[in-house]
Amino acid sequence: MTKQTYFEAARVENYAVGAFNVNTYDEMMGVSDAAAKIGAPVVLMASMSSARFIGLNDFVMLAKSMSRRFSIPVYAHLDHCTHQELLLECARAGFDSVMFDGSHLPYEENLSATKKLAEQCHDMGVLLEGELGVIAGEEGAVRSSFSSFTDARMASHFARESGVDALAVSIGNAHGFYKGKAQLQFDLLDDIVANCDAPIVLHGGTGIPGEDILRAVKAGVVKVNVGTELRAAYLKSLREYAALHPQDGDVRDFTKFLREQLSETASRYLEWFNFKGRLDN
Ligand code: 13P
Question: Could you tell me the residue range of the domain that residue 275 belongs to?
Fold first, then answer.
């Protein structure tokens, strides 16, 4: 019998795993601390540039170390990768899951590249997340000035044919801070969930109202990605600490303050991912 993936475990129990973009050890500590407070598994995500910045092996090692330190499952994930070679390098380095973002390619090209990568990753015991539909905004080196919603019938075909372990969709979500209120298309999400075999991932978590995130999770979203808000909290903490201690700052005192702020930020999101209410439906 094959082991249940973390995507499937979340689907069975109707919660979403929190997935946070991180660039530093302190972000990893803050996020893991927040997840440990509710005993939830958590995903640490590296963009292509942060994977190179931190180092592929170090990223994997740090996720494992967080898992031991906080006694929760902590997964290392490569986010929005458009470089197939880097994706395979991360898989070889021991990432638990990787995302191939072929959403800007024509459908058939996206499908054939994703399918091939899914097979290669599965041979290494690594999960593959694919994407169908274009999510507006900027995430690492991947940016789009427009969005194009995921088509539910195509999502069903794509998931079946590619063999992805999870599928990121575009349903009104966007990367970065939303200009107005995020307008998630819940009918479209229901249609996708009803037709698609693969567990569904929601990107662009920053700024989506908590009630809407919870509604999306209850409708079947199994992983929610959050990046911008954590980066903003990091810089805000830096400025606040510097303002409070213009002359007498202490590195460890600052680091403690920073981790607490990051943990609080991650906790605010984790609250809406239905982990506490799982299995209640
Ligand atoms: P935000 O930066 O909008 O939270 O999105 C993060 C994301 O979706 C990473 O893939």
Answer: 6-280
Of 26, 33, 79, 96, which residue is the catalytic one?
A: 79
Global confidence as pTM? 0.96
The pocket around ligand 1, CB under 6 angstroms, is made up of 21, 79-80, 139, 175-176, 203-206, 225-229
Q: Dump the DSSP string for 159-184.
A: HHHH--SEEEE-SS-BSSS-SS----
Is 250 assigned a catalytic role? no
CATH classification of the domain holding 168: 3.20.20.70
Does the CA dihedral 236-238-241-246 come out positive or negative?
Answer: negative
Q: Ligand 1: which of 23, 101, 175 to mutate, judged by most atoms within 8 Å of the beta carbon? A: 175
Domain assignment present for residue 235? The answer is: yes
Strands 127-132 and 142-144, by their bridges, are: unpaired
pLDDT in tens, 118-145: 999 999 999 999 999 877 777 666 677 6
Q: How many angstroms is it from 166 CA to the middle of ligand 1?
A: 16
> How many domains does one find in the chain?
1
Instruction: Name the closest-CA residue to atom 5, ligand 1.
Output: 204
The whole-chain average pLDDT of the chain stands at 95
